[in-house]
UniProtKB/TrEMBL annotation:
Residues 21-48, 48-76 form the C2H2-type domain. GO terms for molecular function: zinc ion binding. This is Gastrula zinc finger protein xFG20-1. SUPFAM superfamilies: beta-beta-alpha zinc fingers. Keywords: Metal-binding, Zinc, Zinc-finger. It comes from Orchesella cincta (Springtail). The keyword Isomerase does not apply. It comes from the Eukaryota.
Amino acid sequence: MERHLYSHMSAEEKDKSGLKKRCATCGREFKDKKAYAAHILAHKGQQFACDQCPKTFHWKQGLRRHVVNVHGKPPKIR
């Protein structure tokens, strides 16, 4: 029930509620569910590599943004 109510709270109310998700791997705490989910994916080690330099990313969108901003062309996602 508490989690259901949490889903209806505004961002400000969530910050005040103290409800946090804790990473079982490293112990880091998150108030935001999306940030927690992104953090867990980072522990899983999935990487998207730039085909033009040695840089890697946890998210496809991060790679896309990098290739356009740094290399100035549309990315080739592997």
